[in-house]
Design brief:
Elements (H helix, E strand, L loop, with lengths): L5 H10 L4 H23 L6 H18 L4 H20 L1 E3 L7 H7 L11 E3 L4 H4 L6
Antiparallel strand pairs: 1-2
Length: about 140
C-alpha cells in the first residue's frame, strides 16, 4: 500500500472520479455527504433505487478514503463516522444479498460485515421504492 497522507487521498479521489469539490474537501466533504444520506434515510428516503445506490457508493468511497489517510486523520473523524453509521443501521434493515447484486459484490470483494451499507435497505420510504429491494 502507498503511504497514508492527504496527497495520496487527493490522488485516490481524482482516480476514483470524484468531483473537484470532493477532491478539495476530502474526508470532510465525504462525511457531510454521508450525513446528508443518513438524514434522508431517517426521514423516509424519497429518491429512487439508483439514487440510493449512488448514496451508498459515497459511503464506500469514504471507507476507501479512510484507508489512505494517516491514523491521526482517521481518528479525528472516527466518533462522527461511528455516530452516522449507528444512525444508518437504526434506520435500515439488513438484507441477505448485496444491493448492487452478488456478481458485483464478488468482483469488488464486498461482504455484509465490511461493506454493510450495501446490505441494508431503508425502513421507510415510498412503497414503490421499497418494493425494488431484495427481500430478506
Amino acid at each position: 500500500m502507498t503511504p497514508r497522507d492527504a496527497g495520496n487521498l487527493e490522488q485516490f479521489l481524482r482516480e476514483a472520479g470524484a468531483s473537484d469539490t470532493v477532491v478539495r474537501g476530502g474526508l470532510e466533504v465525504l462525511l457531510v455527504g454521508w450525513e446528508r444520506t443518513v438524514g434522508a434515510i431517517e426521514s423516509g428516503y424519497t429518491g429512487d433505487y439508483e439514487d440510493y445506490l449512488g448514496d451508498l457508493d459515497g459511503r464506500q468511497l469514504l471507507a476507501q478514503a479512510l484507508e489512505r489517510v494517516t491514523p491521526d486523520q482517521a481518528a479525528a473523524v472516527a466518533a462522527r463516522l461511528q455516530d452516522l453509521d449507528d444512525r444508518m443501521r437504526a434506520a435500515t434493515v439488513p438484507v441477505t444479498r448485496c444491493l448492487w447484486g452478488m456478481i458485483v459484490a464478488d468482483e469488488e470483494g464486498w461482504s455484509p460485515e465490511d461493506n454493510w451499507w450495501y446490505y441494508a435497505r431503508p425502513l421507510s420510504g415510498p412503497p414503490a421504492f421499497l418494493e425494488e429491494f431484495p427481500s430478506g
